[in-house]
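Quick one, probably user error.
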């Protein structure tokens, strides 16, 4: 915030209960600031959600608004998990201030320093960072309108696929109404599970809430969970697609660390990537499909090629039958150096604290390690800069939400979580003006970029819809915006995307 900015209380968003009384959430706060010569208002507040006209949850958000808003674009921003707050995108990439990071995917020593974010999206859109129930400062309401403890309150009432979408749709509609922004172009931006959320909201908001979407931005999205859960987090002996999806990222990681025997450090990245994708969808996919029916010599040739691309010992690749799990790859690639590769950014490594054990027992260096940095950064902005006064703990990533999450659409107990791809396609068809931007970091082993590429190639989009979809990836991991050059290029790409979606580029021309 600029010097002299003063924090003031913000509207509480009190909601009438079924008894005629109101539920008063904690008092929010607001302040003004200046970003690169642009004056803005920052408002942190809780908005009360209802079920059957009863207040049930308090959703916390931070809005950055330039001028009086009106017809200026507004972007609602979510992170993933489920169970993650919006702090990662808030103080890592999009807000007017961000934590100062080295710029190569690694994290700084604590405590983090806040700096002006020259790459903030505030240059072309207002921003609303939303913390779903159970994350950040957002909580369930466990008292009735008379202040008594509620006997009917379900602590996990919002922890489900469809319930989450309904809650976010209610929040967005209420926010637009309370801020007089129904004339603004609406954009959605979500990372990881937030990308899944945005993919499905592209349909839900337009079909069920009457909210037209100008643009959807899916960042490192998990579009289909069935494949992700098998290929990236576990490993299935009888599956094909998940192994194909993650292989190109593994190959790029091996090349980055100088371990690939199929390329040299001087080999252009585009060439390495192209070779990996061709092998993954060609010989490797055939090998995974045919299994024991493949002739032994052909099988051994594919295994050797796989080992060379991944920089792993042929004996190890043969022992796992060509299905190298992500957890195995991150441990094996640099085992001789006593280092572990990051799952969320395979260019980042950490010391293996238990090199003599079969299973790595440490946290992922590119997720666990950043927790204190983002927690400190967002708490400083909320409490010291904006002036939020609450004794609540800001939950950066709430594992209890993840554990309690349910598939609301399940008809039988074995039914997997529905993917977002169908809803995304349907939402794009509902509105011939809606545009979408999907992006990944190429070194992300958690939600591999090639999974999205493959899905986009299978969507069978008509030419008009295909023109409205942009797929563009950057160097870096799951949070590729931790790389300075990638963050700058990402912001520039989204600025063009927003201008095209709103017609601002046509107005200038």
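Nope, works fine. Designed sequence:
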């Amino acid at each position: 915030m600029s010097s002299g900015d003063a924090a003031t209380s913000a509207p509480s968003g009190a909601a009438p209960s079924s008894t005629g009384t109101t539920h008063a959430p904690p008092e929010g706060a607001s302040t003004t600031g200046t970003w690169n010569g642009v004056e803005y208002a920052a408002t942190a507040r809780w908005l009360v959600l209802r079920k059957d006209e009863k207040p049930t949850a308090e959703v916390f958000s931070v809005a950055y608004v330039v001028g009086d808003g009106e017809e200026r674009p507004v972007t609602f921003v979510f992170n993933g998990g489920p169970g993650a707050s919006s702090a990662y995108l808030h103080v890592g990439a999009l807000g007017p201030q961000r934590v100062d990071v080295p710029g190569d995917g690694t994290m700084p020593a604590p405590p983090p320093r806040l700096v002006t974010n020259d790459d903030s999206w505030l240059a072309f859109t207002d921003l609303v960072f939303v913390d779903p129930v159970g994350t950040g400062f957002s909580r369930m309401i466990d008292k009735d309108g008379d202040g008594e403890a509620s006997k009917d309150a379900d602590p996990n009432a919002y922890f489900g696929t469809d319930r989450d979408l309904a809650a976010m749709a209610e929040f967005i509609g209420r926010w637009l109404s309370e801020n007089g922004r129904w004339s603004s172009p609406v954009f959605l931006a979500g990372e990881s599970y937030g990308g899944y959320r945005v993919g499905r909201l592209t349909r839900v908001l337009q079909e069920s809430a009457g909210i037209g979407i100008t643009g959807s931005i899916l960042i490192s999205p998990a579009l289909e969970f069935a494949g992700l859960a098998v290929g990236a987090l576990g490993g299935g002996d009888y599956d094909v697609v998940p192994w194909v999806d993650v292989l190109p990222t593994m190959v790029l990681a091996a090349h980055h660390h100088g371990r690939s025997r199929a390329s040299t450090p001087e080999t252009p990245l585009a060439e390495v990537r192209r070779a990996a994708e061709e092998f993954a969808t060609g010989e490797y996919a055939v090998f995974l499909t045919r299994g024991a029916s493949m002739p032994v010599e052909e099988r051994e040739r594919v295994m050797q090629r796989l080992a060379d691309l991944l920089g792993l010992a042929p004996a190890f690749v043969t022992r796992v039958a060509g299905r190298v799990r992500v957890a195995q790859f991150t441990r094996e690639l640099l085992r001789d150096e006593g280092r572990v590769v990051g799952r969320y950014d395979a260019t980042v490594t950490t010391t293996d604290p238990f090199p003599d054990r079969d299973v790595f027992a440490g946290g992922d260096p590119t997720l666990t390690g950043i927790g204190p940095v983002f927690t400190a950064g967002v708490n400083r902005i909320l409490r010291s800069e904006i002036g939020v006064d609450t004794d609540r703990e800001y939950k950066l990533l709430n594992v209890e939400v993840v554990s309690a999450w349910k598939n609301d659409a399940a008809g039988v107990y074995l039914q997997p979580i529905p993917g977002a791809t169908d809803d995304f396609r349907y939402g794009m068809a509902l509105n011939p003006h809606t545009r979408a931007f999907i992006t990944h970091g190429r070194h992300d082993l958690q939600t591999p970029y090639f999974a999205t590429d493959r899905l986009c190639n299978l969507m069978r989009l008509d030419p008009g819809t295909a023109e409205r979809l942009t797929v563009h990836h950057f160097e870096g991991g799951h949070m590729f915006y931790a790389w300075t050059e990638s963050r700058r290029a990402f912001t520039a790409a989204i600025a063009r995307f927003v201008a095209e979606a709103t017609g601002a580029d046509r107005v200038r021309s």
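Residues 14 and 24 are 5 Å apart (CA to CA).
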